[in-house]
Amino acid sequence: MTTKVEQAQVIRGLEGVYVSTTELSRVDGERGRLFYRGYAIEDLAEQGSFEETAYLLWHGHLPTATELERFSQQLAQSRRLPARLYCVLYDLPRETTPVTAMRTMVSALAAWEPNADATTPEAELYHARRLTATFTTMTAALHRIRQGEEPVLPRDDLSHAANFLYMFHGREPSAAAARAMDTFLVLYADHGFNASTFTARVTASTMSDMYSSVTAALGALKGPLHGGAMEAAMRQFLEIGAPDNVDAWFERALKEKRRIMGIGHRVYKTWDPRARILREQARILASESDEPQWFELAERLAERTLQHPYFQERRLYPNVDYYGGLVAYYLGFPPEYYTLLFAVSRIVGWTAHVMEQHADNRLIRPRALYTGAEELAYTPLQAR
Ligand code: ACO
């Protein structure tokens, strides 16, 4: 007997399946373009700021000067942590990876946040600001504590990007560093229904709260198939060691059928537009650094892949993480924090998606085609 369910088509990994609509970001993989609410990321990265991008994604329109000033102040004033959360940070075992630690911290933050379960639009705008602002404070404090240093309290006279660098490193960043950080944060803010965003939306679709959605999203981001590529790309450059080693390393990688980290994308079949922008930021930071060789090395490796028929035939181009890792390195972040840097930005997208989901909610509840045994005779325990 063939039932209706047995005839169902299973689309593994939901590849190519549209499960919802969104007005937040549009990814055009063929043309290599990315838009947030209709605005090209090139314009937002060059002329806007992280604050403007967050406002756009959460409120649906670009802010006026007055709106932006008020919003930036609100975000800055949301940076302080309850004292008890520092105790949680100190109590976490040192071997806890930074992403696992922050997944725990977001969940812990909810416990100290009045009305954390509220899902009204006003409450969610507050929670989105609170999560985004404190995520930087907690990430920086985690790093400082692990370095055996005191956490640095946030300053509300600095931009989101500059304050994050200030809290992380304990000193005010240069103008170029603050600019590169800001650009980085604009570019990672949203990217369609990637795995962590989808996870956030599934959680939100049960009408659960925003802290739960972000905790779940961090769990999804943690996996090496999603958030780990930036770190892997930079570690690969460090492994190659010097620009002059690129050619031999590349030939060996080809022979061993090894994947080049930071190259290729499921959606972009041309340059990832974010990679182009971060490449320029990496170039600027490299020129000011006493380690310019990493940028030179990355350029040489990218050139080798772009010129090679294997990569051309498969339409494999540098993705955002190729140059994102370099920017993160030049900004002084240890590689084990790179996945968290992704989250420092993407938390804006996750929270925007929670709000979009709640604005017109339908429980996300797909089905699985059962392929196990059927109608077996039950043998009592003593007879087995
Ligand atoms: N180096 C060498 N070969 C590659 C690479 C790479 N980086 N990426 C894909 N290929 C090859 C595959 O071996 C395969 O070859 P085949 O047809 O001979 O079997 C072909 O290109 C297609 O590969 P798929 O894995 O089917 O492509 P898919 O679209 O599923 O993969 C992915 C995209 C996972 C990003 C892949 O390109 C990859 O592993 N890249 C390296 C890791 C990376 O940079 N990830 C970050 C992605 S961006 C982001 O997540 C923010």
Structural summary, described in words:
- The protein is mainly alpha-helical and 384 residues long.
- The protein folds into 2 domains: 38-223 and 339-359, Citrate Synthase, domain 1 (Orthogonal Bundle); 229-330, Cytochrome p450-Terp, domain 2 (Orthogonal Bundle), CATH 1.10.230.
- It has helices at residues 41-47, 50-59, 65-76, 83-91, 98-111, 121-146, 160-169, 175-187, 195-204, 210-221, 229-240, 246-255, 273-288, 293-307, 309-313, 320-330, 338-359, and strands spanning 25-28, 33-36, 39-40.
- It has a 3-stranded antiparallel beta sheet.
- It is globular and about 70 Å long.
- The two termini are 30 Å apart.
- The structure holds acetyl coenzyme *A.
- Acetyl coenzyme *A binds at residues 229, 259-266, 314, 316, 319-321.
- Residues 229, 259-266, 314, 316, 319-321 line the site of acetyl coenzyme *A.
Total helix count?
A: 17
Q: Percent of residues in beta strands?
A: under 5%
CATH level-four homologous superfamily name of the largest domain: Citrate Synthase, domain 1
Tell me the CATH topology of the largest domain.
Citrate Synthase, domain 1
Task: Please tell me the CATH architecture of the largest domain by its name.
Answer: Orthogonal Bundle
Strand count, sense and barrel status of the largest sheet are:
3 strands, antiparallel
User: In order across it, which strands form the biggest sheet?
Assistant: 1-2-3
H/E element order: EEEHHHHHHHHHHHHHHHHH
What radius of gyration results from the CA coordinates? 22 Å
